[in-house]
Design brief:
This protein has about 300 residues and is of the alpha/beta class. About 35% of the residues lie in helices and about 20% in strands. The strands form 2 sheets. The chain has a 5-stranded mixed beta sheet. The protein has a 5-stranded mixed beta sheet with strand order 7-6-8-5-9, covered by helices on one side.
């Protein structure tokens, strides 16, 4: 009997050993995170060449904040963000046709909301102004209102029918100014496209190749010799500030990305860098005016205040 039990015990031990060898302990496999791919469209122009190196508040306001958002989406929200460069006309077509598209520095409009989604404000600018350089005579007085503003753009070219205004091609100037531009004789408008269109318009103005340029103050950067010869005019009725936003496809993915961008922006608004990124492009008086405007129109949030 003892021999039988011993033999049975040896058999069980051998069986356990064999099972252990044939069924080794399964090691835990690291969880693989599937990153959702977002195609981040960037207009193929000179100002955007080094977009992902704009990591200082002293660089372009929009580019600095755009880079910051992209890095946070990749790092903290696990998106696979791929930068894709293309021309302005293709940006629009691609945004309308795909579900994983985002881009920055866009005006929010009812037309664009039909096919895309917008974030909270990305950055703020003084609105477009009408520029003239090295003029030989003043503009006719009847073109101005009591506040010294141009009454409307069309009246300028009705009084000066041979003059040309340069503007960027494939760009919205906001609902108000877009409507004013439509009232101008097309013969009085020169549309500039291409990768260097912003700089090219300034150069054309300084070389008297156009008589006027309609542009953001941030885009007109004369040198010291040119500054005294620049004239800048506000258009009566134009919104005082232009607000840029992030813009994504109108899809489930686009909605998630916009939601996450807004969470990042909520923290960015409170930083010293966000304040400094705007301060560089505003005079003290202009910055105070912007802060008053934001307090009146966005009382529930604080956007541009020095960090405490």
């Amino acid at each position: 009997m003892m021999a039988t039990l011993c033999g049975f015990a040896i058999f069980i031990g051998t069986l356990d050993s064999a099972l252990a060898q044939s069924n080794p302990v399964t090691k835990s496999v690291p969880k693989v995170i599937i990153k959702e791919r977002v195609l981040w469209l960037v207009e193929d122009k000179l100002e955007n060449i080094d977009l992902l190196t704009k990591n200082s508040a002293e660089t372009s306001t929009a580019s600095y904040i755009e880079n910051l958002i992209i890095q946070q989406l990749k790092k903290s929200y696990q998106y696979d963000v791929r930068i894709v460069r293309m021309t302005a006309p293709r940006l629009m077509r691609t945004l309308k046709s795909k579900e994983n598209i985002c881009l920055a520095n866009r005006l929010d409009s009812a037309e664009r909301r039909k096919y895309s989604l917008f974030s909270d404000p990305q950055s703020f600018y003084l609105t477009h102004k009408l520029y003239r350089f090295n003029a030989k005579s003043p503009l006719p007085k009847h073109l101005f209102n009591a506040e010294g503003e141009i009454k409307d753009l069309a009246s300028v070219f009705q009084s000066l029918p041979t003059h040309i205004m340069g503007i960027a091609q494939d760009v919205s100037f906001g609902k108000f100014l877009d409507q004013q531009i439509k009232q101008i004789n097309p013969a009085n408008i020169y549309y500039r496209g291409g990768t260097q269109r912003v700089r090219a318009l300034g150069s054309m103005l300084y070389k008297s190749r156009v008589n006027f340029v309609l542009a953001l103050p941030v885009d007109i950067t004369p040198n010291e010799a040119q500054k005294p010869l620049i004239e800048q005019y506000t258009i009566a009725g134009a919104p005082p500030y232009l607000i840029a936003h992030f813009n994504c496809s109108k899809s489930e993915l686009g909605q998630r990305v916009i939601h996450d961008i807004n969470k990042i922006l909520a923290k960015v608004y409170q930083t010293e860098d966000y304040y400094q990124a705007h301060k560089k492009w505003f005079s003290a008086k202009q910055l105070t005016g912007l802060q008053h405007f934001l307090a009146e129109n966005y009382a529930e949030k604080q956007y541009i205040t020095p960090a405490k």
